[in-house]
Amino acid sequence: MKTRHFLTLQDLQAEELRMLIHRAMERKRLAGPYEPLKNRVLGMIFEKASTRTRVSFEAGIVQLGGAAIFLAPKDSQLERGEPLEDTARVLSRMVDVIALRTHSHDTVERFAKYSRVPVINALTDRFHPCQLLADMQTWFEHRGEIRGRTVAWIGDGNNMCQSYINAAKLLDFQLNVACPEGYEPEAGLLERSASHVTLTHDPRQAASGANLIVTDVWASMGQEEEQRQRRDAFRHFQVTPEIMQLARSDALFMHCLPAHRGEEVSAEVLEGPQSVVWDEAENRLHAQKALLEFLLLPQTGI
Ligand code: CP
Ligand code: NVA
């Protein structure tokens, strides 16, 4: 059987994504031990910092009965020049699944090509699909079906925005992207998703009538040197109470975190009654447990 990887949301069929989200919700509700992945090992190679992704994967695999091995850049021979392809071939003979957080998306694609076991994208410069599993679970828990709803993305056309573009198409919702000129998502991605995505440079227009408002940092990991220039370019793209007021009265606010209060979101919105960011963060655990089960035990039918 062909090894299934999870490099972008497009690695899932729409029905699989829905099943996975429902499985995560179901397992979250059921208390008590559940260890279908006994003795299974998750290898983790993280070339960027992480709080949520690392802890949710490590805690998740342990709760499912398995164990994790975490490799920071200095821990492996990768940093001393061992080819990625060799590392993939070796590690995948020892562990059952591998989560990789890195810079270039091409790196996870190359790694997956040489891996015998499923590879999970734990964030690249282009996509962050694990976060979308949690975001969609959070929406379903709070509001039910997302088909036909409107989501406003306000901020950078980055890895999170591009993952929302994929989600819009798969789950059939409308996505209004508002970003400053020069910070748009990839043109090819927008073209392929034109039926579900609109692009504007006006955050107020994107937020009008939306059911969900989402944002992310102005400078992603690896863009630290652009911070000042970005702060200037994005100064009109903060999610404020005024922006929330343009959305529907029952609209939710999400942010993958970490957040910068006073930059992409005001403290009032982040801590306000429409914000579900703590549920969203918690759901990283539940959604990724469902993902690990899906990739390692396809016969369970989730
Ligand atoms: N949202 C998210 O991926 O957080 P970390 O960078 O802390 O993993
Ligand atoms: N866009 C952010 C997401 C962090 C979880 C980054 O890539 O740094």
Write a brief structural summary.
This protein is an alpha/beta fold. The chain is built from 12 helices and 9 strands. Strands 7-6-5-8-9 form a 5-stranded parallel beta sheet. Strands 2-1-3-4 form a 4-stranded parallel beta sheet, with helices on both faces.
Secondary structure elements and their pairing?
Elements: H1 14-29, E1 41-46, H2 52-63, E2 67-71, H3 84-91, E3 97-101, H4 105-114, E4 119-121, H5 129-143, E5 150-154, H6 159-171, E6 174-178, H7 187-192, E7 197-200, H8 203-207, E8 212-215, H9 227-233, H10 241-246, E9 252-255, H11 267-270, H12 277-296
Provide a descriptive summary of the structure in words:
This protein is 40% helix and 14% strand. The protein is of the alpha/beta class and 302 residues long. The mean pLDDT is 97. The chain has helices at 14-29, 52-63, 84-91, 105-114, 129-143, 159-171, 187-192, 203-207, 227-233, 241-246, 267-270, 277-296; strands spanning 41-46, 67-71, 97-101, 119-121, 150-154, 174-178, 197-200, 212-215, 252-255. The strands form two sheets. A five-stranded parallel β-sheet has the order 7-6-5-8-9. A four-stranded parallel β-sheet has the order 2-1-3-4, with helices on both faces. The chain is built from twelve helices and nine strands. It has two domains: 9-128 and 284-300, Aspartate/ornithine carbamoyltransferase (Rossmann fold, 3-Layer(aba) Sandwich), CATH 3.40.50; 131-281, Rossmann fold (3-Layer(aba) Sandwich), CATH 3.40.50. It binds phosphoric acid mono(formamide)ester and norvaline. Phosphoric acid mono(formamide)ester binds next to helix 2.
